[in-house]
Specification:
1 helix, two-stranded antiparallel ribbon, 102 residues, 36% strand, 11 strands, mainly beta, flat
Length: 102
Amino acid sequence: MSAYYNEHDPFAAAWLRNLISAGRIAAGDEDRFRDGKRHREDGPAWERTGADGEHAVEFYRDGKLHREDGPAREWTYANGTHEVAYYRDGKRVEAPKEARDD
Protein backbone atom coordinates (compact mmCIF):
# COMPACT_ATOMS: atom_id res chain seq x y z
CA MET A 1 0.00 0.00 0.00
CA SER A 2 1.21 3.49 -0.82
CA ALA A 3 -0.08 6.93 0.08
CA TYR A 4 0.27 10.48 -1.20
CA TYR A 5 1.08 13.28 1.23
CA ASN A 6 0.89 16.96 0.28
CA GLU A 7 1.86 18.88 3.39
CA HIS A 8 2.99 22.52 3.27
CA ASP A 9 3.87 22.94 6.95
CA PRO A 10 7.54 21.87 7.44
CA PHE A 11 6.92 20.61 10.99
CA ALA A 12 3.94 18.51 9.91
CA ALA A 13 5.87 17.14 6.91
CA ALA A 14 8.75 16.08 9.20
CA TRP A 15 6.24 14.47 11.55
CA LEU A 16 4.75 12.48 8.65
CA ARG A 17 8.25 11.31 7.60
CA ASN A 18 8.93 10.14 11.16
CA LEU A 19 5.64 8.21 11.24
CA ILE A 20 6.52 6.58 7.90
CA SER A 21 10.00 5.63 9.19
CA ALA A 22 8.44 4.10 12.30
CA GLY A 23 5.99 2.08 10.19
CA ARG A 24 2.98 3.81 11.78
CA ILE A 25 1.54 5.07 8.48
CA ALA A 26 1.91 3.92 4.88
CA ALA A 27 4.97 4.88 2.92
CA GLY A 28 4.27 7.34 0.16
CA ASP A 29 5.11 10.40 -1.88
CA GLU A 30 5.47 13.94 -0.60
CA ASP A 31 5.17 16.92 -2.97
CA ARG A 32 5.77 20.62 -2.46
CA PHE A 33 4.36 23.22 -4.84
CA ARG A 34 4.46 26.95 -5.43
CA ASP A 35 2.10 28.55 -7.93
CA GLY A 36 0.99 25.11 -9.12
CA LYS A 37 4.55 23.94 -9.93
CA ARG A 38 6.87 21.68 -7.98
CA HIS A 39 9.19 24.02 -6.13
CA ARG A 40 11.19 24.21 -2.94
CA GLU A 41 14.06 26.48 -1.92
CA ASP A 42 15.49 24.50 1.01
CA GLY A 43 15.34 20.84 -0.02
CA PRO A 44 13.66 18.35 -2.33
CA ALA A 45 10.26 19.28 -3.76
CA TRP A 46 9.39 15.60 -4.27
CA GLU A 47 10.26 12.70 -2.00
CA ARG A 48 9.26 9.04 -2.08
CA THR A 49 9.64 6.60 0.77
CA GLY A 50 8.83 3.07 -0.30
CA ALA A 51 7.69 0.30 2.02
CA ASP A 52 10.51 -1.86 0.55
CA GLY A 53 13.21 0.61 1.63
CA GLU A 54 13.38 2.52 -1.66
CA HIS A 55 13.99 6.23 -1.18
CA ALA A 56 14.04 8.94 -3.83
CA VAL A 57 14.25 12.72 -3.87
CA GLU A 58 14.01 15.28 -6.66
CA PHE A 59 14.86 18.97 -6.41
CA TYR A 60 12.76 21.44 -8.41
CA ARG A 61 12.75 25.16 -9.02
CA ASP A 62 9.68 26.63 -10.72
CA GLY A 63 8.54 23.24 -11.97
CA LYS A 64 11.90 22.25 -13.49
CA LEU A 65 14.44 19.78 -12.14
CA HIS A 66 17.18 21.99 -10.74
CA ARG A 67 19.91 21.90 -8.11
CA GLU A 68 23.13 23.86 -7.90
CA ASP A 69 24.88 22.09 -5.00
CA GLY A 70 24.39 18.44 -5.93
CA PRO A 71 22.30 16.03 -7.99
CA ALA A 72 18.70 17.06 -8.70
CA ARG A 73 17.59 13.39 -8.70
CA GLU A 74 18.75 10.82 -6.16
CA TRP A 75 17.34 7.31 -6.03
CA THR A 76 18.27 4.54 -3.63
CA TYR A 77 16.64 1.25 -4.54
CA ALA A 78 15.61 -1.57 -2.20
CA ASN A 79 18.63 -3.63 -3.32
CA GLY A 80 20.98 -0.81 -2.20
CA THR A 81 21.93 0.54 -5.62
CA HIS A 82 22.09 4.31 -5.88
CA GLU A 83 21.58 6.55 -8.92
CA VAL A 84 21.99 10.30 -9.29
CA ALA A 85 21.39 12.79 -12.11
CA TYR A 86 22.32 16.45 -12.36
CA TYR A 87 19.96 19.09 -13.78
CA ARG A 88 20.00 22.86 -14.20
CA ASP A 89 16.78 24.64 -15.21
CA GLY A 90 15.21 21.38 -16.37
CA LYS A 91 18.14 20.31 -18.56
CA ARG A 92 20.31 17.35 -17.72
CA VAL A 93 23.95 18.31 -17.26
CA GLU A 94 27.17 16.41 -16.74
CA ALA A 95 28.13 15.64 -13.15
CA PRO A 96 30.80 17.94 -11.75
CA LYS A 97 34.31 16.54 -12.00
CA GLU A 98 34.58 15.97 -8.23
CA ALA A 99 31.44 13.79 -8.35
CA ARG A 100 32.59 11.54 -11.21
CA ASP A 101 34.54 8.29 -10.86
CA ASP A 102 36.82 8.94 -13.86
